[in-house]
Specification:
The structure holds 2 protein chains of 2 kinds. By secondary structure, chain A is an alpha/beta fold. Helices cover about 30% and strands about 25% of the residues of chain A. In chain A, strands 1, 2, 8, 9, 10, 11, 17 and 18 form an 8-stranded mixed β-sheet that branches. In chain A, strands 5-6-4-13-14-15-12-16 form an 8-stranded mixed β-sheet, sandwiched between helices. In chain A, strands 3-7 form a two-stranded antiparallel ribbon. Chain A is globular. By secondary structure, chain B is an all-beta fold. Chain B is globular and about 30 Å long.
Chain lengths: ~400, ~80
């Protein structure tokens, strides 16, 4: 209100535009949600403040800016439920903790089942959830209809609605706010956030990392965290760390603002689409990735056509709605659709990548666990299963079903 | 959207008419995806259904060459292992 009266001339920067120092205890490469959350929890919970976050572009401008903001924890494996469940519960009080409105909206998640195979898959997930302590359960078609009145139904449909998985705490949040909130608090606690600073290579000597060569000079580091999504493999390959990560374009779109018509998050795995309605009334829509690897972030209309065609099967009344904005990101896909978190290669090098299509919901949990892992020197039990060694030990954590849109 | 010309049958079409088959192993070519030129197998799905090679920039989507299997062009500037 005060700023409105002042023609918005009095706003202060939310985080310091820090100049890079010659050295830090910890350098985090990647100024997205995961890197920023790690920096915050290092400073807040562990008192480790001699930390820099390096972002090659603008803060949170990678996948943190490009997702469809869905927050849920209905994953299949106990390791995943621990990690995503932790993150989900941290989201619930994040606005208070970070003193920044994250627009967290726990409106409920409906994951639709249209085939016998959907019912089996989702029931299995719901049972595993409840067994672990995450509240989700199957609901019959009648209850789905009352939650999602827009759904088109009747004898003319090829596949009848068979029910859905319902997670009542499923939510959305304002994705940019998450990045800004963590950045603001971390900066206030003493973390240097350095934008427009690209990490070019990581220097290691006698088996441990010693610094990072950046576009703004060399920065010495006691430890280095690489939270750079699809840019991570190129940074760590010269250190002998080969990551099974493939970059793929994932597109999303928003429609023009509409009056309130959808007050839950809907995921339709059968047709590979998901949708929610933002506070501005826009439908936020996403679907499957593009069909070949790349970094272009552009994608092309056929992928969007597929996603929207599918959703129109479910919600034909949307056929005249106009698309307002469309974009793409580069998701880092691992063979088991689970992230890679933990130490790798030279000592004091840590990875936090491979989140693929599902990283946004994990930001708080990932940062929290990462900070604990780095400071304790031991693998925090929540992230230990996701170490890179699982690929050579044959311990894949296969979440291709629970990552909703199997690909 | 990639516009691809099949080197075997000459069909020129959108990427949706073709199938990506992963990296094309060739001495000197990259063995993983980078923001640079990568060499891949593609299949002419709507045409002759042969597999052929393609060099494209995985960052800006520019197509540098397509070739019949076995007849690879020399490495391009900016392309290396």
């Amino acid at each position: 209100m005060r700023e409105a009266r002042r023609q918005h001339t009095g706003w202060e920067l939310a985080w310091r535009k820090a100049q890079p120092k010659p050295s830090y205890d910890i350098v985090i490469i990647g100024g997205g949600g995961h890197g920023l959350a790690t920096a915050y929890y290092l400073a807040k919970l562990h008192g480790v403040k001699n930390v820099a976050v390096l972002e090659k572009g603008w803060l949170g401008g990678g996948n943190t800016a490009r997702n469809t903001t869905i927050i849920r924890s209905n994953y299949l494996h106990p390791e995943s439920m621990a990690l995503y469940g932790l993150s989900h519960s941290l989201f619930e009080h994040l606005s208070g903790e970070l003193d920044f409105n994250t627009f967290y909206s726990p409106r409920g998640l409906v994951e639709l089942a249209y085939t016998r195979s959907d019912v089996d898959r989702l029931s299995r997930t719901a049972d595993a959830n409840r067994h672990f302590g995450i509240k989700s359960w199957m609901i019959p078609p009648d209850e789905v209809r009352s939650l999602v009145p827009l759904l088109d139904e009747g004898k003319h449909k090829r596949y009848p609605l068979m029910g859905a998985l319902w997670q009542p705490t499923g939510a959305v949040a304002r994705h940019d706010a998450i990045a800004w909130a963590y950045a603001r608090m971390a900066s206030a606690l003493g973390v240097d956030i350095i934008e427009n600073c690209e990490a070019e290579s990581i220097e290691a000597e006698v088996g441990r990392v010693i610094g990072v060569h950046t576009s703004r000079g060399y920065i010495a580091a006691g430890s280095v965290v690489v939270a750079a999504a699809a840019d991570t493999p190129a940074l760590v390959a010269p250190l002998g760390v080969n990551l099974p990560i493939e970059p793929v374009t994932l597109q999303a779109l928003v429609t023009e603002p509409l009056k309130p018509i959808l007050d839950v998050v809907v995921i339709a795995g059968t047709v590979e689409g998901y949708v929610s309605q933002s506070d501005k009334g826009e439908l936020v829509i996403g679907g499957a990735t593009d069909l070949y690897p790349g970094f272009s972030r552009r994608g092309a209309i056929p992928a969007i056509e597929d996603t929207v065609a599918s959703l129109l099967e479910l919600f034909p009344m949307l056929s005249r709605v106009r698309m307002l904005r469309h974009w793409g990101g580069t998701v880092d896909i691992t063979p088991d659709r689970s992230p890679i978190i933990g130490p790798a290669g030279p000592r004091n090098l840590y990875l936090n990548c491979g989140w693929g299509t599902g990283g946004f919901k994990a930001i708080p949990g990932s940062g929290y666990a990462m900070a604990s892992l780095i400071t304790s020197g031991k693998a925090a039990h929540v992230v230990q299963p996701f170490g890179l060694e699982r690929f050579t030990e044959g311990r894949l954590i296969d979440e291709s079903a629970a990552s909703a849109v199997a690909h | 959207m990639l516009l691809i010309t099949c080197p075997v049958c000459g069909v020129k079409a959108d990427e949706t008419e073709f199938v990506n088959g992963g990296l094309y192993a060739q001495t000197g070519a990259r063995d993983r995806y980078v923001r640079g030129i990568v060499r891949e197998w593609w299949m002419c799905d709507s045409g002759c259904r042969s597999w052929f090679g393609m060099a494209r920039h995985a960052g800006n989507q520019r197509v540098f060459a397509v070739w019949v299997r076995g007849k690879e062009p020399e490495l391009f500037p900016g392309e290396s292992a």
